[in-house]
Design goal:
Blueprint lengths: L7 H6 L7 H7 L20 H16 L2 E2 H8 L3 H13 L3 E6 L10 E5 L5 E6 L5 E7 L5 E8 L5 H18 L4 E8 L2 E2 L5 E4 L4 E4 L1 H9 L3 E5 H12 L6 E6 L3 E7 L2 E2 L31 H5 L1 H15 L5 H26 L3 E5 L2 H4 L2 H13 L2 H4 L3 E4 L6 H15 L3
Parallel strand pairs: 4-7, 7-11, 12-15, 15-16
Antiparallel strand pairs: 1-3, 2-3, 4-5, 5-6, 8-9, 9-10, 12-13, 13-14
Helix pairs in contact: 2-3, 3-4, 3-5, 4-5, 8-15, 10-11, 11-13
The structure holds zinc ion (ZN).
Length: 412
């Protein structure tokens, strides 16, 4: 596999109308490193048509209700090219005409177009939970229509994979329109072909999840790292700009990076895997990986919850903010120490935190930004903004849907 999210034949099989060869190339747009998520200029000669299709679809996806002339203006494609591409997209059922624009001037009123938002559905799945796998059926706007969940009961390895198959099957049976694809956010290191190279918590090593699921269900499937999926959700639905770092705090700690409008994958697909870097030089608690003082030992949810509970037991008070605050500040300080060189190296302007709000929002987030500010040059990094995600617990599910949108239609 080459990182394409399913073969082009499969991609078209989910789109009912067209069988034109020219239409297929665009549908098989790959979800791969280095790809700019929202193309804004004309394509390179090698795949002009596929690129221009994405341009038209992205224009409609972002602004709805556009005429062919509007699209030509925005994309700088010729009106002939736009009409030609739109005809093709209408034939495939991806674009629909939604009436005419009211106007008072002379001439024929312009016909307005939109992406066929209700005509297709997406399945999005989050494998990062410790107790269950969760998923949803979503529309093309990323709104959740149906939900399903399977309990893990401690399953790992092949057992955990059976649960993924079960959940995928359940969700596909809940869809009420042709399925554009299945997106899955998995913990661990995932390559561009959707092979989970390593996911210690699930006991997976070199699991070709994407290829197996797409063969089994005969739909396009895209599997990616959960933090990277979360970044895509922020990018499409959370109002993030082209540059951001998203930190996910849960069972472990991971991050996703969006730079110049592209997701960062790294040389071994492990970009953003900051959980097992040591913070400081004076020890710390032992980590599951065998080292002492990894970022996860300071920040992972089970560690924080355990530390706060122990401190509360000691002073005989429950849920006292005074007891939790120094523990949360300490965690935030260690996160800030880990992030400062990253912020400096990449000159990132925005950091988004995703995880339990009761732990992250407040002293922990404040200590993180204070520490980064104290350790970087104000002149260059003073405008750094740190905030909680607004997408809550569905961030990976919605991001998985964006992986499908981006892979299949080139929109995000
Ligand atoms: Zn570690």
């Amino acid at each position: 596999m080459d990182g394409s999210i399913g073969t082009s034949t499969r991609a078209v099989s989910s789109v009912p109308t067209s069988s034109k060869g020219g239409a297929r190339r665009g549908m098989a747009e790959v979800f791969r490193p280095g790809r700019v998520l929202r193309p804004s200029t004309k394509g390179l000669p090698e795949d002009v048509r596929g690129h221009n299709r994405s341009l038209v679809l992205q224009t409609l996806y972002g602004s709805k209700r556009q005429s062919r002339a509007d699209i030509a203006r925005t994309t700088r494609l010729t009106r002939v090219s736009v009409s030609d591409l739109v005809a093709e997209l209408i034939e495939e059922g991806l674009v629909i005409e939604i009436g005419t624009r009211e106007h008072s001037g002379p001439g024929k009123p312009a016909t307005l177009l939109d992406i066929n938002r209700k005509g297709f559905q997406i399945v999005g799945i989050d494998l990062s939970g410790s107790l269950s796998f969760r998923g949803a059926v979503l529309d093309l706007d990323g709104e959740v229509l149906e939900r399903a969940e399977v309990a893990l009961h401690g399953a790992t390895g092949a057992e955990a994979k059976i649960r993924v198959v079960e959940l995928t099957g359940q969700l596909l049976s809940l869809t009420r329109a042709p399925v554009l694809g299945v997106g899955i956010g998995s913990p661990g290191v995932v390559d561009a072909a959707g092979v989970v190279l390593r996911a210690p918590n699930l006991g997976w090593r070199s699991e070709p999840l994407q290829a197996e699921l797409s063969a089994r269900f005969d739909v396009p499937v895209v599997v990616g790292n959960d933090a990277r999926a979360a970044v895509l959700a922020e990018h499409s639905f959370g109002g993030a700009d082209g540059d951001m770092m998203l930190i996910r705090v849960g069972q472990g700690v991971g991050s996703g990076l969006l730079l110049n409008g592209s997701l960062l994958f790294g040389s071994s697909f492990a970009a953003g895997e900051i959980g097992h870097t040591l913070v400081g030089t004076n020890g710390g608690a032992e980590c599951a990986c065998g080292k002492f003082g990894c970022l996860e030992t300071w920040l992972a949810v089970p560690r924080l919850v355990g530390r706060i509970a122990a401190a509360e037991a000691e002073v005989g008070e429950r849920s006292s903010r005074d007891v939790a605050e120094p523990i949360l500040r300490d965690a935030g300080r260690h996160l800030g120490i880990a992030l400062a060189p990253v912020v400096a190296a990449l000159n990132i302007a925005e950091i988004v935190l995703s995880g339990p709000e009761d732990l992250l929002d407040g002293p922990l987030a404040e200590a993180t930004i204070e520490t980064i500010r104290a350790r970087t040059m104000t002149e260059f990094h003073g405008n750094l903004h740190l905030r909680m995600t607004t997408l809550g617990a569905d961030i990976v599910i919605r991001g998985a849907a964006v992986m499908v949108l981006s892979g299949q239609l080139g929109v995000s």
